[in-house]
Amino acid sequence: MKRYNVAVLPGDGIGPEIMGEAVKVLKAVGKKFGTEFVLTEALVGGASIDANGVPLTDKVLDLTLKSDAVLLGAVGGTRWETLDYSIRPERALLALRKELGLFANLRPAKIYKDLIDASTLKPEVIDGVDLLVVRELTGGLYFGVPKGIETLPDGTERGVNTMVYTTPEIERIARVGFEVARKRGKKLCSVDKANVLETTELWRKVVIKVGKEFPDVSLSHMYVDNCAMQLIRNPRQFDVIVTENTFGDILSDEASMLTGSIGMLPSASLGAAKNRAMYEPIHGSAPDIAGKGIANPIATILSVAMMLKYSFDMEAASDLIEAAVEKVLNKGYRTADIASPGEKKSTCTEMGEAVLKELA
Ligand code: IPM
Ligand code: MG
Question: DSSP secondary-structure letter at 32?
Fold first, then answer.
């Protein structure tokens, strides 16, 4: 029997609730497909700050390095917002990305027919949208140096971040973009600000060069401001978008709203080696609804599906979960975030159980 070690990091807020349902799904699939998932749970983010004083301990980092994949819920919450930036819950995420070398962040945004009215956009604009944002995750503004805040001789302060990319960093993320586009609609749009920022001028040059290896993928380029506009004007034009860290952060939030709820979207963060991978919903810890049992577990359940596909080559199991989610939506199950006024609302557990029933 195949055996995989998965680090399970529920985190804060709704993290433990949604993770509970996702873990049930993972176990059920393991049984069905004769695969053993050895799950090791650990604290991360605010939960770790409360217990250990830091958002990510060496022990937990070590656990993730030794695992075949990491499944993460969400981190952060109002309680920790007054802490120094260097020890905020979000730091755990950034450290995991950096230490595991998770340079490629895959964020799909797909419209479910049954939820088409949940979006704030007109149905005719979003019908059929199925796009994927490939966000560079370990470079650019987030990690570039120099960075920091310094006090100048006159007593005023100066804050600095640096958007920096090297050729190898651009090459490897471009390759991921082309490779996933090749398996989808064969269209890649590279998003930059090459008319202003030199670092993205280099980005465009390198992407074009890498593109020569992928003649079957049609490559286009778009400035980030235009892309922000095109995403709501005509989102169906996109198949795969590849872009730098900060642009990807912003555009992926925007793309998620095409689908109506950020509670539906999973993500994968991948490194160079097969055992370097972290899967998480793209939404946050939602402290306002934490503990109420009403969070939507689908994004985390779909993150499990991504894990099965990208880390364990269990395509059939992955498809099965996606199909189960679709069926459950079709049957009318709705958590509060995706319910229309007057519709019956399911709890987090009811939604998880409904998916499990479809899987059985
Ligand atoms: C995301 C989040 C994170 C980011 C935060 C929580 C550090 O917004 O994963 O998109 O900015 O990358
Ligand atoms: Mg973000």
Answer: H
